[in-house]
Amino acid sequence: MSFQDMERSLVHPKEKRYYVLSVIFSIIVYLALIISLVGIVYLIIGLLLAFALNLMTLGFVRLNGVRLSERQFPEVYERVRKLCDRMDISKVPDVYVTQAGGALNAFAARFFGKNMVTVYSDIFEVIRTGEHELLDFVLAHELAHIRRKHVSHNILILPARLIPFLGNAYSRACEFTCDRIATYVTASPAAAERGLTMLAVGRDLYADIDVDEYLHDSEQNRGFILRMTEKMSTHPPLPKRIAEVRRIAASWWPKSTAPNI
């Protein structure tokens, strides 16, 4: 089975639903603004501001970050190429490593029509401990955003992205999708768990965390404020992402044959 055929089952069920709602809402907003002369001005200003902020952020990364290549971290660069092959991504995006004051993050973006991935150095440094599979998961997650065109859709659904209960719901569904794709293409549920746990407690502590206890404690966190906090977030809670990785991995690989568990 090709990746394209498998991809349909990897996409989280809510992604398409919220994307369709976001497109409909955004088109209505765009049409309303176009009809109004004043609205056109606001629309142009808003799009220009969004473009300028995105340009400054990505420009800073390209000016200061280190781009992976055959000469810069060649082993990781080759792993990126292999991930792109598995995911039917024809053109390998530029991958940059940049320092961000200890922040643990990575993101996919487009810069003048060109895809790129940025990985903060505190994540990238796990290669020093031999955790290449953990980094593979992080990279595959960001490549999945590119594969699914999540970044390309941002301008189209920009109005919806500004509505927390719609735009954030779509964003959370996209994160689940990318976790699922990354787990599948790396065939390492354990690395996916470690990578997500690292985002919770940092590079130096994640190996000492009892993940079962972490998930159990999360299940006890209930109440209106916590539910509202989740609904207003662009990313699902990390324990829910870990639980989803476990659930979907168990459906793909029986326990006796599961890789890296």
UniProtKB/TrEMBL annotation:
Which cofactors must be present for this protein to function? Zn(2+)
The transmembrane residues are: 18-35
- GO molecular function, a single term: metalloendopeptidase activity
Fetch the InterPro entries from UniProt: HtpX_protease (IPR050083), Peptidase_M48 (IPR001915)
- A Pfam family annotated for this chain is Peptidase_M48
Keyword Cell membrane found? yes
- State the UniProt keywords alphabetically: Cell membrane, Hydrolase, Membrane, Metal-binding, Metalloprotease, Protease, Transmembrane, Transmembrane helix, Zinc
Any binding details for the cofactor?
Binds 1 zinc ion per subunit.
**Some GO term, biological process aspect, for this entry: which one?**
proteolysis
**Keyword Transmembrane belongs to the record:** yes
| Domain (Peptidase M48): residue spans on this chain | 71-156, 159-248
Q: Which Gene3D superfamilies match?
A: Metalloproteases ('zincins'), catalytic domain
Q: Which family does it belong to?
A: Belongs to the peptidase M48 family.
Protein's recorded name: Peptidase M48
Species this protein is from: Kyrpidia spormannii
